[in-house]
Write a structure and sequence with these properties.
heterodimer; A: about 270 residues; alpha/beta; Rossmann fold; 6-stranded mixed sheet; 4-stranded antiparallel sheet; 10 strands; about 35% helix; globular; B: about 350 residues; mainly alpha; ABC transporter involved in vitamin B12 uptake, BtuC; two-stranded antiparallel ribbon
Chain lengths: ~270, ~350
């Protein structure tokens, strides 16, 4: 397993109830797991525990079998990269300069990145289709372009596991699909991807497995085809779920019934 | 692979950046060397180089007075430019500078306290300046964490304002109680900033901490860039943001305190120079930090030359840097807003 949370719990200081309570998850190489649930259900807290930004009050987080707390920061950064929901940019770094920061764990603190690191960053940008944005400032990119550049930073970090917090929360449908395709490409190349979302269609399309959370607890987990049933979503979100005839870019995935995800565009390329 | 999103600019070329830094360095050397020959001996304006061969007084003026003072100005500007850039980057706040977060005011208060308590020698003044500078910085950061209003940038601005005001008030009280004949003139000298007393001894004193501070900040440039992004991202890259930020601020403050111990309060260099450097070299501190050093050194050297040569009497260095710095600031952001409008 690339990433495992073993019955982790966490409560914020001053809060009487746990934000995450006894959640266990497994994330294997070459798979994607979506954590889905309503606002305040503990998704982001669970991800913060998984990436080491928070320390669990009880339970363990394991990276490739090793306890997260026993790993040095740099070693942990070579195993797992993280894309928070919001990232504020004060200075006008170029996309290439920003993506190159993904090389930080691999470079001696007293020396800057070398030509190999620059090549790695360029390759990461190419991989998400953003090679043309190398010299553009991150502050000038659209929300969708920025999300892909941020994903490229994770790729430059060369980690087996990538964790994304609400990656589509500010994306239009076209860029959501673009991001989902990029994630599917990464998964097919063996990366393990964990992301949180409250978009069931995105989860259905981009993830192999889904964990549904409510009130800090895991209420169901399984393959995305099996887990994303209307009754389970109703229970988690507290509102009725039905099918709709509103068009969606994820329709290719939504009509699949056997749990296998894949979109026409991916299948055309023989991927996903 | 998702479809390509076309960019409008090519990627930045390392050799082009290196050439740019070399050009700035060459221009900086030319300007600072020219500053050496500007003054009021033998008459206001340029001293002819040939005079050095024939006139012993010219040699004494140049090597005994102007050269150590020029080196002091270079060290002062380099340390203020680099520390200003470091402050802005690690606090992700383009308005941050040593003065903004209470370091300069703290150093001035520390020096004033040393002067009124009868401390002798530059070292005692510098240690006191450094200690109170760190106190000012620590109080600014601590207070910003305690504030419950606004984001991190705004909280830093507010706490820096409050701490700087408190330290300035402390300085005013020290001045009020100081001996008007012996101590007050020395303290007044501090608050205006001047390198008039910077001979070889004082320049040598400030050289080690200034060079160490500047060299550290240049060498640590890429980590400083990594610390300028979101804190959770910096942590996920394997950094220890709080520890590394503290180390950077201590190095920056040590250099500033040593420079301020000799030069007094010199404002605006640490604020304006990093902005110009980032415009020229980009935001990545690998490139903007050495350019901040070069521009800061050149700017301080030019300002000090104006301070000593423009009028028969000395002008306060702090007044010259503030005047030129504020002018550059206004010009830069006026130009920026036009670019934005296009």
């Amino acid at each position: 397993m690339n990433l495992r949370t073993d019955s982790v719990s966490y409560g914020y200081p001053g809060s009487s109830r746990d934000a995450v309570s006894g959640v266990s998850l497994d994330l294997a190489e070459g798979t994607a797991l979506a954590v889905i649930g309503p606002n305040g259900c503990g998704k982001s807290t669970l991800l913060s525990l998984a990436v080491g930004a928070l320390v669990p009050r009880s339970g363990r987080v394991l990276y490739g079998g090793a306890d997260r707390s026993s790993l040095g920061r740099r070693d942990a950064a070579k195993k797992l990269s993280y894309l928070p929901q919001i990232e504020r940019f004060t200075f006008q770094l170029t996309a290439l300069e920003y993506v190159m920061l993904g090389r930080v764990p691999w470079v001696d603190p007293w020396s800057g990145p070398g030509t190999d690191d620059q090549a790695e960053a360029c390759e990461a940008l190419s991989r998400v289709g953003m090679e043309g944005a190398r010299g553009r400032h991150v502050t000038e990119l659209s929300g969708g372009e920025l999300q892909l550049v941020r994903l490229a930073r994770c790729l430059a970090q060369r980690t087996g596991t990538i964790v994304l917090d609400e990656p589509t929360s500010m994306l239009d449908p076209a860029h959501s699909l673009l991001l989902a395709d990029a994630l599917r490409d990464l998964i097919s190349s063996g990366k393990a991807v964990l992301f949180s979302t409250h978009d069931a269609l995105f989860a259905r399309y981009a993830a192999d497995f889904v964990a549904i959370m409510r009130d800090g607890k895991l209420v169901h987990s399984g393959s995305s085809g099996e887990a994303l049933r209307a009754d389970r979503l109703e229970e988690a979100f507290g509102v009725p779920f039905g099918t709709s005839d509103v068009p969606t870019p994820f329709a290719g995935a939504a009509i699949e019934a056997n749990g296998e995800v894949g979109h026409g565009r991916n299948r055309d390329r023989g991927e996903g | 692979m998702p479809p390509s999103v076309e960019g409008k600019d090519p990627s930045p070329c390392r050799s082009r950046v290196a050439l740019g830094i070399f050009t700035v360095a060459a221009a900086s050397v030319a300007v600072t060397v020219a500053c050496l020959f500007v003054g009021r001996y033998p008459k206001p304006g340029f001293m002819p180089i040939s005079l050095l061969l024939s006139d012993p007084t010219a040699r004494a003026v140049l090597f005994g007075s102007r050269l150590p003072r020029l080196i002091a100005a270079i060290l002062l500007g380099a340390v203020l430019g680099s520390s200003g850039n470091a402050f802005q980057m690690v606090f992700a706040n383009p308005l941050a500078e040593p003065g903004f977060l209470g370091v300069t005011q703290g150093a001035a208060l520390g020096a004033a306290l040393a002067l009124v308590s009868g401390a002798q020698g530059d070292a005692a003044i510098a240690v006191s300046a450094f200690a109170v500078a760190l106190l000012g910085l620590g109080a600014s950061v601590r207070l910003a964490r305690a504030f419950s209003f606004g984001g991190w940038v705004l909280r830093m601005a507010l706490s820096g304002l409050a701490v700087s005001a408190a330290l300035s008030a402390g300085l005013a009280i020290v001045k009020f109680g100081a001996d008007p004949l012996k101590e007050l003139p020395d303290i007044a000298y501090w608050t205006m900033g001047s390198l008039a007393g910077a001979g070889w001894k004082k320049t040598a004193f400030m050289a080690v901490p200034c060079i160490a501070s500047t060299a550290f900040l240049v060498a640590y440039g890429w980590r400083i860039t990594a610390l300028s992004v979101d804190e959770t991202v910096a942590s996920s890259l394997g950094l220890r943001p709080r520890v590394e930020r503290a180390i950077i601020l201590v190095f920056a403050s040590a250099g500033v305190a040593a420079a301020v111990a000799v030069a007094g309060t010199v404002t605006w260099v640490g604020l304006v120079v990093p902005h110009v450097a980032r415009r020229l070299a980009g935001a990545d501190a690998r490139f903007s930090m050495p350019v901040s050093v070069l521009l800061g050194a050149t700017f301080a050297a030019v300002c000090d030359t104006i301070a000593r040569a423009a009028l028969p009497g000395e002008l306060p260095l702090g007044a010259v840097t503030a005047l030129l710095g504020a002018g550059a600031f206004v010009a830069m952001f006026s130009k920026g807003s036009k670019e934005l409008a296009r």
